[in-house]
Amino acid sequence: MANSWGSLLQDEQQLEELAQQAVDRALAEGVLLRTSQEPCSSDVVSYAPFTLFPSLVPSALLEQAYAVQMDFNLLVDAVSQNAAFLEQTLSSTIKRDTFTARLFDIHKKVLKEGIAQTVFLGLNRSDYMFQRNADGSPALKQIEINTISASFGGLASRTPAVHRHVLNVLSKTKEAAKILSNNPSKGLAMGIAKAWELYGSAKALVLLVAQEKERNIFDQRAIENELLARNIRVIRRRFEDVSEKGSLDQDRKLFVDGQEIAVVYFRDGYMPSQYNLQNWEARLLLERSCAVKCPDIATQLAGTKKVQQELSRVGVLEVLLPGQPEAVARLRATFAGLYSLDMGEEGDQAIAEALAAPSRFVLKPQREGGGNNLYGEEMVQALERLKDSEERASYILMEKIEPEPFGNCLLRPGCPARVVQCISELGIFGVYVRQGKTFVMNKHVGHLLRTKAIEHADGGVAAGVAVLDNPYPV
Ligand code: ADP
Ligand code: MG
Q: What pTM, to 2 d.p., does this model score?
């Protein structure tokens, strides 16, 4: 994609002055993170890293990403309800991946006891990169869908004001007006509020399962504040607190500190390092309860990379979304090449292709949170090591998306403003609520653009690689 800020990026002194104004506006707007030195305290905070300019995104791709979000909501929900599909899809993975195996074990236990939860809430974010088709037209390719702890919906509502400010300082008022307003946290809170209302107990609270060290607290507070404005109370507790103070009554209603919980919203529990024995027990307790979990364990499993890969197999979408050929076509149009590494001929061939052309592939384990995927020489070494072992089934292989780089200036606390070649990743937030078999809500609620320097293959904002951005529609 061409870059319309080209000449602006060359004037170093102007960039430095603009950067100072942008940072001050970001701080004033609340584009904040706690510092890595003090992740448990808000006494000293700094700005979340962001781009000085919004990055150009073809409007058609933005529209396509928004249009397919309701289909992804339906798809994730359909997968979560299809125990046979989850079992079959994850069977080889859970033999070798203990984290997925533990999640799956909780899923099995809940199914065996019978699911007490009747209202289901999905808050997800589907992420994409842009690539050129063979004919030169731009294409939207899904990177992954996040079904647990999808973050930055709060901060993403505050960055448009910063980019409008930068453009207004440059007297580019027409351009400033083109920056889209965005308020994902409001939409996410509306989903939580709907689930809370359907749970049907005016006294019950929302439990936000939080990490002890949380730099991204202001992102979470944006949702909490929206809920409080609707007179819905939120308590923040760690898994450890749930394990010490949580209990179920005979109807499997969940109580924490003696207060009934209507909705459990996880901003923790998506990485192995976030669990010890006590935390796993707390997760099981939460899953057994009739509180609305966001996500419930099956929906978390529906977001694994292994499920993503199986969904791309010929005929699978048609089975999961019967009678919806248009939704199937919209979904499939966003899929990149995804390959199973299960033992057998198909997996052998995928490995041979990746070893023959490593720059065209990414090797992905069943992990979230950035920094886990393998590229290039590292991928080759891993594939050589895994090739003849059943362990390979705990990974999938994915076509590497190659967006066209463009120049932008990345701003981070403590670093000089620097212009670098970048690529962007667009996320769309989706919200759905289902009561029994009935869909009560199915929406898209906003977007997130993250941009990173091309030298980083992997990683998001929380991982310290990407920075917050806004799409400038062209
Ligand atoms: P995680 O669950 O850790 O966020 P992702 O699948 O989103 O895992 O990958 C992390 C990052 O790696 C992405 O944000 C993106 O920058 C990069 N990435 C992942 N898959 C691809 C791909 N197929 N092509 C190019 N880059 C990718
Ligand atoms: Mg990701």
A: 0.97
